[in-house]
Design brief:
This protein is an alpha+beta fold. It has a 4-stranded mixed beta sheet with strand order 1-4-3-2. The longest helix is centred in the first third of the chain and has 26 residues. It is elongated and about 70 Å long.
């Protein structure tokens, strides 16, 4: 916030206009007004970034088959990636960034390993669609 104020103050000095300062004050006022709603949302437990509960992981038949065939070190890497994805599914990029309806289909890639999964946010489940090992 101090940076916003400093930038608006500098702009006002440069242009001899208080418009930018008024805009910053309006934004701050809106933040103060919305603070109780934000607090209520966070307290409701619907914010998946603060629940601390990892998603349940379910393997599709194809993914389970690939996982069983991986070398031991690659299998351990796959479980590590799945643990990271279960902890924060949105940490990894969407499978197709140009598809706004497919934002919950994600790909977690580490080295030669890629895990494609669907994050069901309502049920807090990861459905592992496929695992690709290039080794």
């Amino acid at each position: 916030m101090p940076q916003e104020w400093a930038a608006a103050l500098e702009e006002s000095r440069r242009t001899f206009s208080l418009a930018h300062l008024y805009e910053v004050v309006q934004v701050w006022q809106a933040r103060v007004v919305s603070a109780p709603a934000v607090d209520a949302f966070l307290a409701s437990g619907r914010d998946e970034t603060v629940t601390g509960q990892p998603y349940a992981v379910r393997l599709a038949a194809q993914a389970a088959k690939v996982l069983a065939a991986l070398p031991e070190h690659a299998e351990q890497m796959a479980w590590d990636v799945l643990d990271a994805a279960a902890g924060n599914p949105r940490e990894f990029p969407p499978w197709d960034a140009d598809d706004p309806e497919g934002e919950d289909v994600r790909i977690a890639s580490v080295g030669q390993l890629s895990v494609i999964y669907f994050a069901n946010r309502a049920l807090r489940r990861l459905s592992i669609l496929d695992i690709v090992w290039l080794g």
